[in-house]
Write a structure and sequence with these properties.
The strands form 2 sheets. The protein has a 6-stranded mixed beta sheet with strand order 2-1-3-10-4-11, with helices on both faces. A 5-stranded mixed beta sheet has the order 7-6-8-5-9, with helices on both faces. It is globular. It has 2 domains: about 180 residues, 3-Layer(aba) Sandwich (D-Maltodextrin-Binding Protein, domain 2); about 120 residues, 3-Layer(aba) Sandwich (D-Maltodextrin-Binding Protein, domain 2). The protein has about 325 residues and is α/β, with parallel strands linked by helices. Helix 3 packs across helix 9 and helix 6 crosses helix 11. The chain contains 11 helices and 11 strands.
Length: about 325
């Protein structure tokens, strides 16, 4: 084959490649939700997928692949072709996979198409308890070690992480009572079997509105819906906040840039939809709508804060320092 023929062949391949990239997406796109149907991530993603379809111009088919703290769904996406036709609809957990020895990858193996929102974490109590804010609760806990019962959902959960943050700064001698998730924990709180808990706002909004539970504070440096910031009682918490579980859309790092840009543009428009924003904010979320470098910066900070809280609490399986995760 002559050099000229080789040149023509290479030029043709380049042209075909360029045309293929420009035509993305040519078919439907698959989204893998790493948690079960009806969960917070499932609701967050299904609530805006129709808006993303409209912006993308193709159908998006969602499937739930729960299990292994989300590892099964995340690993499935990692095994798919790097063509932009499969994305992960995930929460915060993959950021800690290496720290907790759950998988040999974390969110650094993914490109963040969109970090949708962050949940407000509230400290809520049984309505009959005497406390009116977190400062009063903290004082009571310290004055009566072991007497106050706290709902928890085990290592890695929102209540575990929040209490670990507090314990890193001051004495917090509560009696943790474990439950399998917010649902049973809230039921126990309503029945007076536990006294308080740290829970994402969306899970308790209706109980608060109905007066069945009361809010003592928010894990932030500013108020939320009248709830005082927990930093007022414990100023050292400021180095950790804002903090809360988050939702996002991710693809493999080596997906072509054209596909990444088109997905990012579609999901940015979807997350910005007024109806969707109203729904998410009504569930206690702070809308972020971050992509690319901004999203990466947010995830890296969340990972840094949480990984080192776990290290200090003695539950990290691998030191964040060994993984190159800087201290916050």
């Amino acid at each position: 084959m002559s050099n000229y023929s080789k040149f023509l062949g290479a030029a043709a391949l380049t042209l075909l490649s360029t045309m293929a990239a420009a035509e993305y997406p040519e078919r439907e796109v698959s989204g893998v939700i790493q948690w079960g149907a009806g969960g917070a991530t499932d609701v967050a993603v299904r609530g805006m997928v129709s808006y993303a379809e409209e912006a993308l111009g193709k159908k998006i088919v969602l499937q739930n692949k729960p299990g292994g703290v989300g590892v099964i769904g995340a690993n499935f996406v990692q095994q798919q072709a790097s063509d932009g036709y499969t994305f992960l609809a995930g929460a915060e957990n993959p950021a800690l996979y290496k720290v907790m020895s759950l998988a040999d990858f974390d969110y650094k193996a993914f490109y963040p198409i969109n970090v949708i929102s962050r949940a407000n974490v509230l400290v809520v109590a049984n309505k009959d308890k005497p406390w009116t804010n977190f400062k009063e609760l903290l004082a009571d806990v310290q004055a009566h070690p072991g007497a106050v019962k706290m709902y928890t959902a085990g290592t890695g959960s929102v209540p575990f992480t929040t209490s670990a943050m507090i314990t890193s700064l001051t004495k917090f001698p509560v009696t943790p009572v474990p439950f399998d998730g917010d649902g049973p924990g809230i039921t126990a709180m309503l029945g007076g079997h536990v006294d308080f808990g740290f829970i994402a706002a969306g899970a308790v909004q209706e109980h608060i509105k109905a007066g069945r539970l009361k809010v003592l504070g928010v894990l932030d440096a500013k108020p939320y819906n009248g709830a005082p910031p927990m930093t007022e009682a414990l100023p050292g918490l400021e180095k950790y906040v804002p903090w809360g579980s988050f939702f996002g859309i991710f693809v493999k790092n080596d997906v072509p840039d054209d596909a990444k840009m088109k997905l990012a543009a579609a999901f940015k428009k979807a997350v910005d939809n007024p109806t969707y924003k109203e729904m998410m904010e009504g569930r206690g979320n702070v809308m972020l709508n971050l992509s690319g470098d901004e999203a990466r910066k947010f995830i890296d900070r969340w990972q840094s804060v949480t990984a080192w809280v776990y290290q200090d609490a003695g539950v990290a399986k691998v030191s964040p320092a060994e993984l190159g995760i800087p201290k916050p």
